[in-house]
Amino acid sequence: MAHRFRSTYGSISLNDLKNIYSGPERVNRIELACQESKLNRKLEKREKMIEEVNKMTFEKKYRKRLNDYVPEYKIYLPKAPAFREADNTQVDEIVGRLYQTQERRPRKSAKSCDSEQSRSSNKLTYSASELNMIYERLHQSETQTFRNRQVFR
């Protein structure tokens, strides 16, 4: 029986005797309208933010991350130390470092290679028969690996 008496707040307020003769409650409708408009504004702001993020391409994100926008010139400049402001003494130090020659230190591995080359400078000599044997061994049609593969197939 309880299901017969189910009704919403809107239907009760519309069918209430007080509201029938005096008109529906305007306060409640105004409050609901304000709440709906606030909710709509919030949803619209959220949708705009999502659209802006979606519109932002990888290049724009990359540009914003690595560059600073200069509104005076309406351009992006790199966030590099070379673009910082410097006085005359700092500029002179930078220029001096650029013009200063640097001598390379010899590496240890280069020294060891030189000593090994001097030890093994004796060249090997082979006779014609030995060279033919080496050539045949390297260029024969059947290698040991080829024979092993034939056995396992």
Structure description:
With 153 residues, this protein is mainly α. Among the domains are: 7-55; 60-97, no CATH class. 63% of the residues lie in helices and 5% in strands. The chain has 8 helices and 2 strands, in the order H-H-H-H-E-E-H-H-H-H. A two-stranded antiparallel ribbon has the order 1-2. A hairpin with a 4-residue loop joins strand 1 and strand 2 (75-78). 0% of the residues are buried. The mean pLDDT is 74.
Overall form: elongated
Q: Give a count of the beta strands, DSSP E runs of length 2 or more.
A: 2
List low-pLDDT spans.
none
Distance between termini? Answer: 86 Å
The structural class is mainly alpha
Helix and strand run: HHHHEEHHHH
Largest sheet: 2 strands, antiparallel
Order of adjacent strands in the largest pleated sheet:
1-2
Region (Disordered): 98-123
Please outline what is shown here.
This protein is mainly α and 153 residues long.
Sequence-ordered SSE layout with sheet pairings:
Blueprint lengths: L8 H7 L1 H6 L3 H30 L2 H9 E4 L4 E4 L9 H12 L8 H12 L8 H12 L4 H9 L1
Task: For this entry, give a set of tags.
2 strands, mainly alpha, 8 helices, 5% strand, two-stranded antiparallel sheet, 153 residues
